[in-house]
Amino acid sequence: MFKKALPVFMLAESPVHVGSGTELGLVDLPIQREKHTGFPKIESSGIKGCLREAFESPAVKEKLKSLIGNGSADNDRLEKLIEQVFGPEQGDLHSGALGFTDGRLIAFPVKSMKGVFAWITCPHVLERLRDELGLAGIKLPESPPKNTVTEQSGVIFDRDGEIRVVLEEYTFPVKKDASCSQLADWLAETMFKTGGGGGDLLAYWMEKMRNSLVVLTDDDFRDFVELSTEVVARTRIDADTGTVASGALFYEEYLPQESILYTLALAAPVYQKKDAKDAYFKQEGKDEATLVLELFRRGVPEVIQIGGNATIGKGLVRLSFPDREETMDCQAQSPDL
Predict the structure, then answer these.
(1) What are phi and psi of 124, to 5 degrees?
(2) What is the spatial distance between Cα 321 and Cα 304, in angstroms, rounded to a whole number?
(3) Which of 28, 120, 237, 252 is 20 to 30 A off residue 200, Cα-Cα?
(4) pTM of the model
């Protein structure tokens, strides 16, 4: 049973293709989607696999050494520790102590006539985000009503007292709303202040969130996330003729760059006999689930690769968390899941 939850926010820094297999429709290789809403998602198994791979990298192991053994931990101990957290790669001796929920959309980038692009969201997405953040003891600001923008919105046209946004070829009447501003502030502070690295890049994205968030209706949001993803034609060139090989033209769908998603990292006590557990999980005053999350949080890279086509630069995702100290306190107060 999982005991602790930590929200992990994901900003796509390049288009992401987490495929659902081959289909016979217009798109040969579509992305994963929720069955009942049609919203894009990333299966939890894919997230866990990519994070485990990241933890196997030399850079992460170096970080873990300083955390668990004052720089003296050997590779065998690190491998055992990673197995306890993520589970053995082979066999079924025990489960991993760390799990993840599916990656769900928070905001989707859409071309805007003003401000280059806007981040759209909807009441359904925000209420689900509120419910799931509640599992980690985190309270989301009040959900803004549909068809609203922030008070400092930079994607609106004001004509004769009527405010509108133009997204793709569609025009939507909207209103400025204080609760939309509060939500944008919360997302900006949560996603880009603690994302690591600092610098002007994150400052730009914080400001972009504050002036580009648009809350649409659930139906309008669904239409955009179904029809405004990127569809790319891929081919294979015949080495002998220098032309497209016969039958090698296919279409592949991507979640666009700048899409924002989240998942919950769920931690349980380590599933091994007490005498087989690593010394790291025997710290006095801290329960095992808290130590599992702490290890994950301190070791996870700022940017990981999720999904296919890594060799052509796809799937780069920046990770961020709510404020560290605040979240640890919330976890301590949260009930069992």
Answers:
(1) -60, -45
(2) 14
(3) 120
(4) 0.89
- Find where tokens 């922030």 sit: 150
- Give every residue of the chain whose pLDDT is below 50, as ranges: 195-198, 325-337
Q: What is the structure's pLDDT at 60? A: 87
* Distance between CA atoms of residues 72 and 183, nearest Å: 44
Q: What is the pLDDT of residue 242?
A: 80
The β-bridge partners of 244 are 237
In sequence order, the β-bridge partners of residue 33 are: 40
Query: Which position has the token pair 């071309």?
Result: 111
Q: What is the largest CA-CA distance in the chain?
A: 74
Instruction: Residue 53: name the closest of 252, 269, 304, 334 by CA.
Output: 304
Environment class of residue 149 by beta-carbon count within 10 Å: exposed (0-12), middle (13-18) or buried (19+)? buried
Q: What confidence tens digit (pLDDT) does each residue in 154-212 have?
A: 999 998 889 999 999 999 999 999 999 999 999 998 888 654 444 556 788 999 999 99
Task: Return the structure tokens found at 25.
Answer: 């429709």
Cα 260 from Cα 107, distance rounded (Å): 5
Could you tell me if 64 and 309 are in contact, meaning their C-beta atoms sit under 8 angstroms apart? Answer: no
How many angstroms separate the CA atoms of 209 and 191, rounded?
Answer: 10
Asked if 337 contacts 135 with a C-beta cutoff of 8 angstroms, the reply is yes
Q: What is the DSSP string of 155-179?
A: SEEEETTEEEEEETTEEEE-EE-HH
Q: Determine the Cα–Cα distance for residues 337 and 331; give it in Å rounded to an integer.
A: 11
Task: Give dist(CA 309, CA 70) in Å, integer.
Answer: 37
